[in-house]
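Q: Sequence in, structure out?
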Amino acid sequence: MKPLVTAALAAASCLVLAGCGGSSTPAAAPSNAQGQTVVKLMVGGANKQIYLPAKLTERLGYFKEQGLDVQLSDEPAGVDAETAMLAGQVDGVVGFYDHTIDLQGKRKLAESVVQLLQVPGEVVLCRSDVADQIHSPADWKGRNLGVTGLGSSTNFLTKYLAVRNGLQAADVKSVAVEAGNTFIAAMQHKSIDCGMTTEPTISALLNTGQAKVLIDMRTAAGASKALGGVYPASALYMQTSYVDAHKDVVQKLANAFVKTMKFIAKSSADQITDQMPPEYYTGVGRAAYVKALADEKGIYTADGIMPEGGPQTVLNVLSAFDPNVKGHNVDLAKTFTTEFALQANKNAG
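A: Exactly. Output:
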């Protein structure tokens, strides 16, 4: 019996190591009944215009063209989407690029594989009844500031704006209010004095006169003024281990997303809105949604490629306050790749 037991243990060891030679073969990405590769992506607020490319790619059929069954799920706060990715619940996240830098500070490797936004598309709004008391983030001391979630990109940017304007991060209180109706309710109930949000929530509050703009990062000029440079935001980011193991799948994702970015660049806001689910603009109305999208179309990259110098701006911002980044040696080259987007542009012709 002893030789049999020894052989069984050796066989089990081989299975664990995926080969007795010490080499391991990555598991193939799962497929559905139709033979399409299944990829699970979580979006940090699917109905936000800053994350519009994810749903638009699905609606245009570009994922299916690549032989992918991309299953989109929604999580209002990007930090929770990041957590789901680290837990293996999803393969990737459509969220802000800055998470990849923050994660490296925590000794976890993730990278942007397609860059969707070249600027944040975020706006800081203040309640109309306090707007005349708040002229810049320097006036935020003791104030409640609305963010999508604690540890989210809006939380990162809010803390940085406070520090850049002479405050300590601890001088303001970040309140997690997500976006859309919950953000609006927080304004109405005076739970927050100011807050950072995106379209269509911005238009909903401005059109009713409930809030006024303090800082506008929907243009390159506005983002540079507030943050010191172009700040690449929404991206498709994935754990480096997944990217290395499934380069063929990542390339197909990049092909689909880059095709969408080209569609956005050549289409009117009205044509883009025609492709979106009506429930995405129910709260603000189609006309207001189209106008907001037309006004901020410049937030999107035209090719999915990381803007030059953008990663350094993001590192500078996070280094000002984020304990996971401040004082740490961050290798920016490991936080993004242009390999797949460049190839996708070649494939698109």
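The two ends are 64 Å apart (CA to CA).
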